[in-house]
Write a structure and sequence with these properties.
Chains A, B: Belongs to the thiamine-monophosphate kinase family. The structure is a homodimer. Chain A is of the alpha+beta class. Chain A is about 35% helix and about 25% strand. Chain A folds into 2 domains: about 140 residues, 2-Layer Sandwich (60s Ribosomal Protein L30, Chain: A), CATH 3.30.1330; about 170 residues, Phosphoribosyl-aminoimidazole Synthetase, Chain A, domain 2. At the A-B interface, helix 1, strand 2, strand 3, helix 3 and strand 4 of A face helix 1, strand 2, strand 3, helix 3 and strand 4 of B.
Chain lengths: ~325, ~325
């Protein structure tokens, strides 16, 4: 049997049960954005790691080395943000093709440094080694959070409003611009930048974890059609989502209109926006919106609600139920 | 300029100064086997990570998937051992070629599980993704150690005896058996097993860190000719090492004799033995040897001594100074 027949989640399901017995109390194992470990009386430790492979996650011809260095840290900081945590430090493992220019690597590390400085996160170690052909970058990030404050995928409750912290689909639109080799100007360059330079929503996550009534949380890496299902499975709940409520940038709308792309497919199925997806008790939404807008000068968007039921998403558009077959980005599709 | 002109350490030297400013107090950055972070009043956190790339660190045709899974954890546990620490948990990032058999991965994870169970270290998370061609495996391990007990590369003192916890060169001999396609029987199979299934010296490291007079410590991953230099540079000391005192297994001696390989080149320059290299106050060696032998039923070996002076190794054989040009394994050689 080939791996592509069962996919990455199928593979994880095959080995993870045998490791359950090794978990001691207070350890959260495989299955959330970060692992949670006890650190001290006040705080828990968060750990997350992401492996970026050339020609799978990025094309060397399409992303500048500086953007690549920036993004490789951003996607991990986003996992820390998605629990409500604060990053402590990063670890970089990099496997480098032997003919690579040092100048390329200098730029890559300049991008890595720029985001490290922006979020004041030190680089604490790693591994530098050789690759036969493809550049491989693994970043591991440690973070911390006050004990008991981490927001998990399993915390959604029936009646919760389902919310997202910012526009959806920009990154997927940017990827289409790159793959279709469209001129990167105006709206098109905006989308490509959103794809190459995502921002981890650390401050937003910090506000949300402090706010009573915010329940489940995760970051949007594979697209809400896929990511929301993780929350539903972990929480044992169903969801209703209104496609017409998905927040979409004007830039994406205009590009979709002129290219004939379906905007709600990109907004629901496209990955790598790295906005936060969270659920909030319905009676707390208004107060949270006020606090959120006050602090960030932008609002979050309610896109649906959590219900009792089998873990699936019931989509609607302008009040009419619709089937939605295109899933999120599947690594082994 | 190509990376192979400056090597991996040259690359690290280029970017690490710019990250210094981001280090806050109590954080040990790049440069030791593990990073050390404050965890709580009693303990520090240790973090290490290693990236294994197919056709660079392993050949899929030469190592079984079970051995590969075992070794990918072992080399990281060895870094925890080398500080005197105890492992807490592991994180596995794996990039998989799409045509790979699930059965191969099952075996790989069985090996990963075997060592996890042997040392009672849970798998706490990771990332599973696709690779275009080569299998890539990054393991990150967290460990802990009582505050102030971690043994660093910088702690060697003039007059210290330089010691190793077990035989040297077996792994390098095993690699030569594999690369020369020799029949893997008897002594030859012993060496290959030492190459494919290294054991992290966690218990040994735990005894050593408790023992007054044990100063610098690291694990032997690149060969003592290379690894000892890291201690000398970090400590600002010189070393005298007696090639004739290097501990060598009978198996390696016999294979070297019949193949015409130079045993002390393998023992001094060959990597991946994952024994511990440590320095001990001269007047504590005898007491330490007694405690070590008592606990492990084997002795460690004194191979030379630390002296004041420029960070270099002065080699001798049977009392005569010798030049030693072949360095340890250089990833970008």
């Amino acid at each position: 049997m080939k791996l592509k027949e069962i996919g990455e989640f199928g593979f994880i399901d095959r080995f993870s049960p045998s490791f359950q017995e090794l978990l001691t109390k207070n350890l959260t194992g495989i299955g959330d954005d970060c692992a949670i470990l006890p650190m001290n009386d006040q705080e828990d430790l968060l750990v997350t790691t992401d492996l970026l492979m050339e020609d799978v996650h990025f094309l060397r011809s399409a992303i500048t080395p500086g953007q690549l260095g920036y993004k490789s840290v951003a996607v991990n900081l986003s996992d820390i943000a998605s629990m409500g945590g604060t990053p402590i430090g990063t670890f970089l493992s990099i496997a480098i093709p032997p003919d690579m220019d040092v100048e390329y690597l200098d730029e890559l590390m300049a991008g890595y440094h720029a985001i490290s400085q922006k979020y004041q996160v030190p680089l604490l170690g790693g591994d530098t080694t050789k690759s036969v052909k493809h550049l491989a970058i693994n970043v591991c990030v440690l973070g911390k959070i006050e004990k008991g404050k981490a927001r998990l995928r399993s915390m959604a409750q029936a009646g919760d409003a389902i919310c997202v912290s910012g526009p959806l689909g920009d990154s997927a639109g940017g990827l289409k611009v790159v793959l279709n080799d469209l001129a990167q100007v105006d709206d098109y360059s905006y989308l490509v930048e959103r794809h190459h330079l995502p921002e981890p929503r650390i401050a937003e996550g910090n506000l949300l974890k402090e706010f009573g009534g915010v329940h489940a949380m995760m970051d949007i890496s594979d697209g809400i059609a896929s990511d929301l299902k993780h929350i539903l499975k972990a929480s044992g709940k169903a969801a209703r989502v209104k496609l017409d409520q998905l927040p979409v940038s004007d830039e994406l709308k205009r590009v979709c209109q002129s290219q004939g792309w379906k905007v709600d497919e990109l907004a629901s199925g496209g990955g790598e926006d790295y906005e936060l997806l969270f659920t909030v008790a319905a009676d707390r939404v208004e107060a949270l919106q006020k606090a959120f807008t006050n602090q960030f000068g932008k609002s979050f968007t309610v896109i649906g609600q959590i219900e009792a039921g089998e873990p699936q998403i019931h989509w609607s558009r302008n009040g009419n139920a619709v089937e939605f077959s295109k899933g999120g980005f599947n690594h082994f599709g």
